[in-house]
Amino acid sequence: xxxxxxxxxxxxxxxxxxxxxxxxxxxxxxxxxxxxxxxxxxxxxxxxxxxxxxxxxxxxxxxxxxxxxxxxxxxxxxxxxxxxxxxxxxxxxxxxxxxxxxxxxxxxxxxxxxxxxxxxxxxxxxxxxxxxxxxxx
Length: 137
Description:
The protein is mainly α. It has one domain (22-120): Orthogonal Bundle (Arc Repressor Mutant, subunit A). It is built from six helices and three strands. The protein has helices at residues 28-35, 41-49, 55-61, 67-79, 101-104, 106-128, and strands at residues 53-54, 83-88, 94-99. The chain is globular and about 55 Å long.
């Protein structure tokens, strides 16, 4: 039996949707990037990966984030199916934000982005310090 990746370069999906010549909104990579689009979005997701939080708890853990941007990011993530908003009855109304199962699957994606960025910044700092770096081919 032939392995499903035979004939494909490492890191390239074995999927006909990957054979496009221009970005397309139905591309899974574009969908993922759209869900994570915007400054602060990855930090909001990171905090929700740690557990459900109220709006005020999110504000407390991300104090430099403005109310407008936090509201925008939560709405964007909810629209993308990454976050769900749970409004509890009573006064004052209590709202909790939680990742959906789809949102939880972004954890490894964020880790891969972190790892790549950490490696890339290490290459950059190595070049500045006079250390040789391995070129990327």
